[in-house]
Amino acid sequence: MSLRVVVEADGGSRGNPGPAGFGAVVMDADSGEVLAERYDSLGVATNNVAEYSGLIAGLRAAAELNATQVSVRMDSKLVIEQMSGRWQIKNAGLRPLAAEAAALVGKFTAVTYEWIPRERNKAADELANRAMDAAAGKAPREQAPAAQAPAADAPKSWAPPASLEDATRIILVRHGATPLTSQGRYSGRGDVPLTDEGEAQAMAAAGRVAGISREVAAVLSSPLSRCVRTAELIAAEAGGLPVTIMNDLIECDFGEWEARTFAEVQERWPAEMSAWLASTSVAPPGGESFQAVAKRVRGAMATVLSAYPGKVVVLVSHVSPIKLILRDALAAGDAFLHRLFLDAAGVSTMDVWPDGNIAVRSVNETAHLR
Q1: Which of 8, 51, 100, 175 is catalytic?
Q2: Residue 235 banded pLDDT, cuts 50, 70, 90
Q3: At what angle do helices 196-212 and 225-237 cross, to 10 degrees?
Q4: What three-state secondary structure class fits 91?
Q5: CA angle at residue 349 from 42 to 253, to 5 degrees?
Q6: Over pLDDT 70: what percentage of the chain?
Q7: Distance between CA 98 and CA 86 in Å, rounded?
Q8: Under DSSP, is residue 50 helix (H, G, I), strand (E, B) or coil?
Q9: CA distance 237 to 233
Q10: DSSP 3-state of 173
């Protein structure tokens, strides 16, 4: 089924460079219904960086909605002309942003660009101004209804939530080392066990989890044995809890790349590797795309948050699912997936509130492994 959407995006900076932010609105092209809104502050940045960031956020939201055709409308002549290919991108600082936007464009069957005057871009402009208020440390403007502007995408202020007790604390643990870990090989659906070192790492991670909270309500695990064993050690330290298998926490299926090194894959599948690195919609030969992994992992997170509101839950999983959870929590771009390193038995922690607000408290803690 095809879905045609309109993306209206904007960005700005108070000072150029100065406190900057962006906003984006995704609407159904036929009905005009608002399907998604995104906005966020960027700290100190230029107008052009903010405008490109708005475009990227809008395209990413459209991709998450599984849109097939996108009409981009912006009041930035520079972004519209550059993305249309009519103007060169002379500013080296904008080239990575343009490349990220271009990679997202590849997810759709068709994308068009249209310049519109600012008065026709009021919705995105308003969102960008809210983000700039946050970047400047000002009190936020009146918020749109939560259904239109989820707090997960747009924190209301820098102030901490009124009550920390309402949050569901998610403790993300990567499994301990396996024989493939030390060799730097792709380890997806193959059910390889922990090594002796991996067992020791899992025990250390169990101690770290206990240090974060002595009130763990549940330990959920990927069905693969390297995760199940790690989860068992964590559950034992947490008072003998049972381990609940959650199939959607399983690692990405790397298909024909399974158990091969990066160098081996690069030599045998150079074109496929380049395409995979450039887009989360591309799967390894015979495998699964990160986009597909993200879809099932989001479903798993929704299930966890519904089942354990206000509780502490440990999720024992693999590199790809944990990276994707953290990417979404941090509202980061897809480049995040290739820049973040997660150690075996590394621990990350985040809090999620009922209204959608998220606070990432730590990423890849490893002090317990020393």
Answers
A1: 175
A2: very high
A3: 40
A4: coil
A5: 90
A6: 92
A7: 13
A8: helix
A9: 6
A10: strand
User: Would you state the pLDDT for residue 116?
Assistant: 92
Given pLDDT bands bounded at 50, 70 and 90, which one contains residue 366? Answer: very high
Report how far residue 275's alpha carbon sits from residue 59's, in angstroms, rounded to the nearest whole number: 19
How much is the mean pLDDT over the chain? 88
Class of domain 4-135: alpha beta
Check 8, 64, 251, 272 and give the catalytic one. 251
Exposure string over 287-301, b if 16+ CB within 10 A, otherwise e: bbbbbebbebbeebb
Q: Is the Cβ–Cβ distance between 128 and 10 less than 8 Å? A: yes
Give the pairing of strands 347-352 and 312-317. Answer: unpaired
Q: How confident is the model at residue 161 (pLDDT cuts 50, 70, 90)?
A: low
Domain 164-369 indexed as CATH 3.40.50.1240: yes
Q: Which helix (H) or strand (E) holds 286?
A: none
Asked if 251 is an active-site residue, the reply is yes
* Per-domain boundaries in the chain: 4-135, 164-369
Q: Which segments within the chain are labelled E, that is strand?
A: 4-13, 18-28, 34-45, 69-74, 110-115, 168-174, 216-221, 243-245, 312-317, 347-352, 358-365
Q: Convert the pLDDT of each residue in 31-65 to its tens digit.
A: 999 999 999 998 888 889 999 999 999 999 999 99
Q: Is the pLDDT of residue 203 over 50?
A: yes
Amino acid at 300: A
Reduce the DSSP state of residue 189 to 3 states and report it. coil
Candidates 62, 61, 60; CA nearest to 70 is 62
114 classed as catalytic: no
Region of 345 on the Ramachandran plot (φ > 0 left; ψ -120 to 50 alpha; else beta): left
Residues 110-160: tens digit of each pLDDT: 999 999 988 899 999 999 999 888 877 654 444 333 333 333 344 444 444
